[in-house]
Amino acid sequence: MGYLSVTELKKTKALGEQLASEHEIIVTRDGKPMAIMIGVDGDTVESSLREIRRALFSAAVSRVRERAAEDPPDPSMIEAAIYAGRGEEIPHSRV
Fold this sequence. Notes:
This protein is of the alpha+beta class. It folds into 2 domains: 1-39, YefM-like fold (3-Layer(aba) Sandwich); 41-95, no CATH class. Helices cover 52% and strands 18% of the residues. The chain has 3 helices and 3 strands. The protein has helices at residues 12-22, 45-70, 75-86; strands spanning 2-5, 24-29, 32-38. It has a 3-stranded mixed β-sheet with strand order 1-2-3.
């Protein structure tokens, strides 16, 4: 996996060669990672994108679960969020 600055993205031939050889490139701006480029086959673009999205979603869920385990939410806050999501008011007997 290589690194490439945003300014070097204009060099399309070199970019294509680097991507073909390394398969993954971290794109940086001001020396900090900002994007990941991966090589894909034209026939598998959609399935590759689905897999990337699935992996990112799974990682996000894992992070939320870890945070919840460290600092469990108050059950009344969960109930309030459910009612708010439904667009309903919390019944007075529940307050």
